Amino acid sequence: MSTCRFFADGNCLYGNKCKYSHTLPQQGSLHLAGADPTSTPQNSLPTMSNAYPQEDNPAYYYSQYPSDGYRNPTADMNFSPSFTPNTSSGYEYSPKVNREHSMGVQSRWNSPNVAVTSGGTTYFYPTDKTQNSDKQSRYMPSLPHAAPTPGQRSLKSFFASEDVYQEFYKRAIETLAVLGQQDPRAVRLPTLVRRYHSLYPLDKSDKDKSVKLFGHISHLFKCIHTNDRLPYLMRRIDGLYVTDEAVSTAVSAWKAVQHPTIITLHEAFNTTEFNDNSVVFLYDYYPCSVTVADEHFTRSRLPVDEDTIWSYLVQLVSALRSVHDAKLACRVIHPSKVILTGKNRIRISGVGILDVLNYDKQEDPSEFQKEDLIAIGRLLLCTCNRKADASENMDVSLAHLRDKYSTELCDIITSLISMKITTIDDINTPAFMKHVFKDNLHLYNYTDFLETEVSKQLESGRLFRLIAKLGFVNERPEYQRNRAWGETGDKHMLSLFRDYVFHQVYESGAPSVDIAHVIDTLNKLDVGSPEKIVLVSRNETVIMTVSYQDIKSCLDSAFEELQMLKSPYLNQQSYN
User: Mapping DSSP to helix (H, G, I), strand (E, B) and coil, where does residue 201 land?
Assistant: First the structure.
């Protein structure tokens, strides 16, 4: 009697009505095609994925079975039916969620099969060597310094950390902030200032409009450029008109200074859009940034860590080196003009304004360069004391500095304030250079951290495009009468695959929400893995044994067909 080809894991598709033998010959008598005849296969029983004959170019195995007397072939197996079972037929049904699809767990179907012929029936067994295709997992593994327990990956490892997400989410919210129509501030602001619109005031109080540094009242706005639609920072100087020569000279000079610690000045111009003569300066915009004065003098009550002070010093000295090499002076190193845009990440804002306002005086920049060094010392002294007026009471402030911080830091700050350091090169002491290397080490570590976080999000767009394709193709109401898109057409496979990915259930009937399974299956679909899976219809009358490659081909052809039928007025878009 011939051996039944539908007998797997102790169960047969036709149950007791099957007329074929359910006893397999001894393993020693099986012949491995293309292998050593004396070798022993790993499995003693065929499984659903290899129980069907292998053809030269198989599309998929398609079968219609009557509901009466139907015995689910995937019961007690490692396949997960994609429907809620109907147990009215009286046969036991035991769906199991396939945990072998979880990321980091080796699936037994990934191995190449060898043919085993017995009694006129060919079985296919996995070989001893596991040979996974590199394309079957495009997910970038965690870097060694950020990897979890060896051999395991948690769900969080596939996505950016919550802290990073919240930080960028807050920045996005502040970048997109606009004034409501009922906001009284919106009435007083112009709709358009040359090429900039959607002005949003950033001044939190009247103190932010202080005239101490610039000699004029200034206002800060977030605005959007009409052409590139990017946000910019607009600083408006009230009641002032300057010549075009002063503006163009200062802007061209500061545009040539490119440094990550200096906020770039893009343009400046005179305007009457605020119902007076005003000069506006446009800079790069950094959302959620705060000034050093707000951070250390108002918000925080904790003492500033010495490593933070050294980091500030290293960043400011690096910025001043580029500015002084360009024969310019910063002139705005002040707690209200140095801002924090990240953890210990400072930038100098407002550069070029004093060059425009004092253009006619033609003052020597070398004297202002010396004042820049003094300003650094005063800024650090005020930050260490957490007082804006610390530099006005030098004896008390220096006593606190020597009591809380190292001698090396105290000596540099004192030398800056007392003008013992007159050029930027005089700061390159051994103590300073030691902290330059230390600051670089922190920078490299943070860069590695961000690269790891970015790598986790690398595949999100690719998998989203796959889900979008499935959503476009599945269950289109306008094609319900079309056989090519109906329950008997090729497109039906995609509906069954959608259920296989998203609609699995446990034995108790509870839905399975397994993100790892979704990631794994979509990843294999994207690369067209030859691995085979079993798809079962919701009414339990259709069974398909297909490979991810077959599903990928069907999805691509169906989506291309939709693109050919779409409105000719829409531009061609690529989802690959």
Answer: strand
Question: In this structure, what DSSP letter does residue 385 have?
Answer: H
Using alpha carbons, list the distances in angstroms from residue 126 to 32, 76, 112, 220: 11, 20, 6, 68
Per the CB < 8 A criterion, the answer to whether 100 and 78 are in contact is yes
Write the DSSP symbol of residue 79: -
pLDDT for 441 equals 93
Does the pLDDT at position 114 exceed 60? Answer: no
The per-residue pLDDT for 486 is 64
Distance CA 56, CA 39 (A): 26
Distance (Å, rounded) from C-alpha 73 to C-alpha 51?
A: 11
How many whole angstroms separate alpha carbon 131 and alpha carbon 110? 7
| Closest C-alpha to 543, from 128, 162, 52 | 52
**pTM for the whole structure:** 0.66
The Cβ of residue 287 has, within 10 Å, a number of other Cβ atoms equal to 18
Rounded (10°) angle between helices 492-502 and 460-473: 130
The CA–CA distances, whole Å, from 555 to 466, 499, 523, 541, 571 equal 9, 15, 14, 22, 21
Q: What is the DSSP letter of 72?
A: -
Mean pLDDT within 129-152: 49
Tell me how far apart the alpha carbons of residues 219 and 238 are, in angstroms, rounded to a whole number.
8
- Residue 318 and residue 341 in contact, taking contact as beta carbons nearer than 8 Å: no
Please give the share of the chain, as a percent, with pLDDT higher than 70.
68
Q: What region does 388 belong to: left with phi over 0, alpha with psi -120 to 50, or beta?
A: alpha
Name 236's Cβ contacts closer than 8 Å, sequence gap at least 6.
218, 219, 220, 221, 274, 278, 279, 280
Positions of E strands within 106-252: 113-118, 121-126, 192-193, 196-201, 218-225, 231-237
pLDDT tens digits for range 21-73: 766 544 333 333 333 333 333 333 333 333 333 333 333 333 333 333 333 33
Rounded to whole angstroms, how far apart are CA atoms 435 and 314? 8
Q: Cα(542)–Cα(555) distance, rounded to whole angstroms? A: 19
Distance between CA 394 and CA 390 in Å, rounded? Answer: 7
Q: What is the distance, to the nearest Å, from the Cα of residue 30 to the centroid of all Cα atoms in its chain? A: 52
